[in-house]
Amino acid sequence: MERRRITIAILALGGQGGGVLADWILALAEAKGWRAQGTSVPGVAQRTGSTIYYIELVPDDAAADPVLALMPVPGDVDIVIASELMEAGRAILRGFVTRDQTTLIGSTHRIFAIAEKSAMADGRASSERILAACGERAKRFIGFDMDAEAARAGSVISSIMFGALAGSGALPFARADYEQAIRAGGIAIDANLRGFSAGLAAAKTSEAALPGEAVAPPPRPTTAAGRALADRVTALPQDAQPNALHGAARLTDYQDADYAGLYLDRLTLVAGFGDPLLTTETARHLALWMSYEDTIRVADLKIRASRFARVRDEVRVSDDQVVAVTEFMHPRLREVCETLPAALGRAILHSPRLTRILEPLFRKGRHVETTSLRWFLMLRILAGMRRFRRASLRYAEEQARIEAWLGAIRDAAARDTALATEIARTQGLVKGYGDTFERGLKNFEIVMAAAPALDADAVARLRAAALADDQGTTLAAAIAGGERRAMA
Amino acid sequence: MAERSFKKEVERLRLGAGETFEGEGILAVTKGLLEAGVAYVGGYQGSPISHLMDVFADADPLLKELGVHFEASASEATAAAMLAASVNYPLRGAVAWKSVVGTNVASDALSNVASGGVTGGALIIVGEDYGEGSSIMQERTHAFAMKSQMWLLDPRPNLRSIVDMVAKGFELSEASNTPVMLELRVRACHVTGRFTAKDNVPPLMTVADAANRPTRDTERIVLPPANFLHEVEKIEKRWPAAVDFVARERLNERFGPAEGDVGIIVQGGLFNTLNRALELVGLSDIEGNARLPIYCLNVTYPLVPDEVADFCRGKSAVLIVEEGQPEFIEHELNTLLRRADLQTRIVGKDVLPRAGEYSGAVLRDGVAKFLRAWAPTIAPPEESATPPAVTPKDVPQRPAGFCTGCPERPIFTAMKLVERELGPSHVSADIGCHLFSILPPFHIGNTTMGYGLGSAGASAFRPEGKRAIAVMGDGGFWHNGLTSGIGNAVFNKDDTVTLIVDNGYSAATGGQDILSSRATNPVRATNHPIARAVRGVGADWVRTIDRTYDVKAMRDTLKEALTAKEKGPKVIVASSECMLNRQRREKPAKAKAIKAGRRVVRDRFGVDPDTCTGDHSCIRLSGCPSLTIKPNPDPLRRDPIAHVDNSCVGCGLCGEASHAAVLCPSFYRARIVTNPDRWDRIKQRVRGALIGWMQRRMDAARAARAF
Predict the structure, then answer these.
(1) Which pick of A413, A464, B119, B496 has the fewest CB atoms within 10 Å?
(2) Which intervals hold domain DUF6537 (chain A) (predicted)?
(3) C-alpha dihedral, B229 to B232 to B233 to B236, nearest 10°
(4) Which of A115, A293, A298 is closest, CB to CB, to B396?
(5) Maximum Cα interatomic distance, chain A, rounded to a whole number of Å
(6) Cβ(B34)–Cβ(B201) under 8 Å?
């Protein structure tokens, strides 16, 4: 029996205009004298979930009263349009994409799912795997970053998808027919036609590729001090040099050239063990730790001209608009004391009476309007405290922790450089501010306490356990499990 | 104001005889009602029937012209009770709701109206929320039809069949004095198509006529001894009358050849899927010309014994395609064949899955299995399945979540913060958007027992120390929560905390107005505060929060409620308008103001990439779609950083949460002024000059000591 119908499944997320796209396709086909039927499953799926719109098209002369299906059947879908890369993956997973039949039109950009976003480190699914499957499974795969294309065209992703459908040539309709469907829809006609046109062009020219990630080149020195530091870096293993250069530049910016010198002193000691990977990872994590985020650093970063420009760019402010920027800062007594000279800060924190008196002053979050003169000056003064940073309580605390950590790395490296590398990486648990910092530090200390008795893999597993949840449940279980094994 | 407007579409309801109607399933149903001379309609919104209620509401002017009464009922029980108008008078009435949950709520009234019977046609349109996209327990309306003896129509899912069945449903109801249910599956509600219209018919008698000339027949009232007579009447009169009508009017259809060794009986609503499955194995075509006999049950209850026997006679086996469980039809077919002494084998759940939606692939495989066993000559060859190129692990799930800027999100952020301080409480959740709190990232909520039943669901918890928390939406509150929850808690001296989430609409079902809506609605009474109703039933500890985004106030009020010395229920009414509705209202207004050159202020949030360390605590306390992640631009860091995309509506939660939870200082709020006035511009110029000068000096100093 000859099959004279075209079946189309649209996989989209709520709010992406999948319904609009479906309506255009229906209008397009009906205007050309085809029988068109569309269905969808609205409801909770529309609230940020993913949903499927399904369309069947039949030429008018194919049947007097066609019996059309209301949902896609695996192995019977001619065109799949996916508004996002993982939705294309979902179409493949559900069997809608088949090698002999399906034209797959998918955007390669990502809208991250909640599990990917809320992971404590990097929870992103593999885009490469999905992209490869798209190429393997479809008869034809048209994939490009439709979100970026929509932004460039000043339009919405539904019109880009409609354009890509036209560009695919998978439907027997002319470009003018598509454009007529957009006009007949009557909503944002100009923007939609722009998007349509961009999508059509991109479908014909684009190679399916993932949106690229920029890799920052190692910095080049601009001063005599910088050149002296850069010279010292050349003594390190080749692989470790980019990280070391980034680190030296970062710490010069953070404090001064002497501080960057201290960084290289410390790194050189570790490089002495002759394991390039250990040196590379230590270069990275030592730089991150030495540039710990204190109030001075935050103030410094918030008031830079480059930051003001970046904000204007990110929130898309035009020249004739005025923008005011407010930060949400929450300096508690602890952070204030950490910025004070060590002796004074310690004295306050160790005195229950002083703590009781002073704490209420620092219990409230502050709305810091950086773009106002008053707050700008305040932050500038705070940033200027950089000169006294070496005297601060926090400096003393962090340097002691760093030295202890480096000591542990060296101790381990003497017998097992793989273990030492994992210990170096454990620094990654310490990040953030406030409660996040305290939680990270606690996890770090737990892992470090266990590390000397473990091998590299076990330390890596403990680190993963520490990042599995923010209650510390998985880590505690992993430690307990390890102890049980050790006893047995 | 509902989420979707049908103002334009309802104009098509005016089409007359011979004109072609094009549109969605639910619109077609409405057209069918008007063509059938319906006198009154009502119902309660809920997927997949919400849009039908919106269509009714938007069609109100036309309904009024025709003399048709429409109301948005307070609950499904209210809607079912409305059918009382058809008991004594020849009034045709239709009500609609989501099934099976709505049918549960309506069952008291349904039992009564089914027992006493009706004079005018009574049609209950149930949106069957089963299968993909469903948000409720998977049960069958069929059980209600059987136990109350109401008839169940399940038409083939094309507009012509659906509209015909609306008309026939009324006739069947009148012929058998029984209410009739018309079941529409999710996709059938939204399927598009066309049919030839007939003229609209004003009701022969209006509800006003009936009210003016009341008649009374105590035999129709469920009270002894009439109730015993009703049961006899059902069996001896109404059931045979229904079977006669279904057979006479040929409501069930036959497809394919008249004879064959095997055949298929299918629920009407599954016919299209079955035909596609047969097509794919080469046994049918696009016009439904099957190569084996098919008996299509557009009426799934009651069955017509003679038709069944005629179809099965001479066949060795018949496949029954019946979705859901228990397999009521399969059981009854077996009984009917026994009584008719036929040896035909009924095959159903032994080749088709007992649970789950009957999709095209499921039916294709089931039919193939059936044919291999009973008709191997026409059975499709077995194909080896290709292993999937991706596994479920590769594709992240997308559980439903709160919309961008949703005012309910900060309530759960606050609950998370309270949980950190006081430890977890038992949380009795409710039905509505707020139920998304049970999903990531919040993971709050232990049970949900039904719409408006949040407080009732916590009533067994008698705390000694730790109070249970019940959540209830404003929709659920007016649906029944006021009495089943608050009233009950007051009466039983409950000590639970009830958090009423008031977003101004029945938001989960599409933003319909309710009693406490702040909007003024020309045809309904709104602006009745929840707090007043709560105090009215005797609750004394009541707090209202008028800005849910104030996480600190939310957190502190919750803490107070959980620790207050007073006994008795503690009620917190947390109000902020549904952001979807608010944006629909404000966005066009702002765009207009900007166009007109007026000063417009807009907030949005952002994250500084150089201070964000990629821990994502903020996301775990929010889950906002606009708060996402992007690759870390820092060459030394690997974890993606938080990022606010341009869909941010500036609700303020990011800032409030970073203060209340002491998060990192990376969030900033950008307050953007479009069409700034003179004062804005002067301020900007002065600040810009001074700050710019300082920044240039700082840059120079930094360059001097740079790397």
Answers:
(1) A464
(2) 245-449
(3) -160
(4) A115
(5) 91
(6) yes
Residues of chain A contacting residue B129, judged by C-beta atoms under 8 Å apart: 43
Burial of A410 (0-12, 13-18, 19+ CB in 10 A): middle
Which one of A47, A129, A288 makes the best mutation probe of the B interface by having the most chain B beta carbons within 10 Å? A47
Chain B residue with minimum CA distance to A433 = B664
What does the block give as tokens for A45?
Answer: 């799926």
- For B594, nearest residue in chain A (alpha carbons): A321
- Chain-chain contact of B47 with A42 (C-beta, under 8 angstroms): yes
Interchain contact, A326 vs B655, CB within 8 Å = yes
Contacts of B693 in chain A (CB under 8 A): none
Catalogue all structural domains in chain B, each as residue range(s) with its CATH number. Answer: 14-204+216-248 (3.40.50.970), 253-374 (3.40.50.920), 409-581 (3.40.50.970), 597-693 (3.30.70)
pLDDT in tens, A291-322: 999 999 999 999 999 999 999 999 999 999 99
Query: Whole-angstrom Cα distance, residue B495 to residue A310?
Result: 52
Q: Identify all chain B residues contacting A365, using CB atoms and an 8 Å cutoff.
A: 658-660, 662
Option in A42, A113, A230 nearest B190 (CB): A42
pLDDT on residue A486: 63
For chain A, give every domain's residue range.
6-205, 224-294+394-487
Element (H, E) at A80: strand A79-82
- Contact present, A98 and A77 (Cβ < 8 Å): yes
- Cβ–Cβ contact B361 with A under 8 A: yes
Given an 8 Å threshold on Cβ–Cβ distance, is B695 in contact with A26? no
DSSP-assigned beta bridge partners for residue A55: A8, A38
**A315 vs B403: CB contact, 8 Å cut-off?**
no
Four-point Cα dihedral A119, A121, A127, A133, nearest 10: -70
Of A338-352, B74-88, B325-339, the range with the lowest mean pLDDT is A338-352
Instruction: Provide, as residue numbers in chain B, all residues whose Cβ is less than 8 Å from the Cβ of A42.
Output: 47-48, 51, 133, 190
User: Is the pLDDT at A46 greater than 60, yes or no?
Assistant: no
Q: Determine the pLDDT at residue B400.
A: 87
Q: Determine whether A218 is exposed, middle or buried from the number of CB atoms within 10 Å of its CB (0-12, 13-18, 19+).
A: middle
SS3 B607: strand
d(CA B125, CA B27): 13
Distance from CA of A224 to the nearest CA of B (A): 8
Mean pLDDT for A393-418 is 97
CB-based contact B286 A219, cutoff 8 Å: no
B213 at interface of A, judged by CB pairs closer than 8 A? no
Strand locations in B447-553 (E)? 447-448, 469-473, 497-502, 541-545
Structural contact between residues B255 and B129, judged by C-beta atoms closer than 8 angstroms: no
Total CB pairs under 8 A between chain A and B: 366
Q: How far apart are CA A432 and CA A441, in angstroms?
A: 10
**Other Cβ atoms closer than 10 A to A368:** 22
CATH number for region A6-205: 3.40.920.10
Place of tokens 């896609």: A72
The confidence score (pLDDT) of residue B1 equals 56
Nearest CA in chain A to B364: A73
**For the segment B424-476, what is each residue's pLDDT rounded down to a tens digit?**
999 999 999 999 999 999 999 999 999 999 999 999 988 777 899 999 999 99
Using the Cβ of B706 and the Cβ atoms of chain A, whether some distance falls under 8 Å is answered with yes
Q: What are phi and psi of B328, to 5 degrees?
A: -55, -45
**Does B259 contact chain A (CB < 8 Å)?**
no
Tracing tokens 């007051």 back to the chain, one arrives at B490
DSSP code of B234? Answer: I
CB B503 within 8 A of CB B576: yes
For residue A219, give the nearest of B619, B692, B707 by CB distance.
B707
B132/A41 Cβ within 8 A? yes
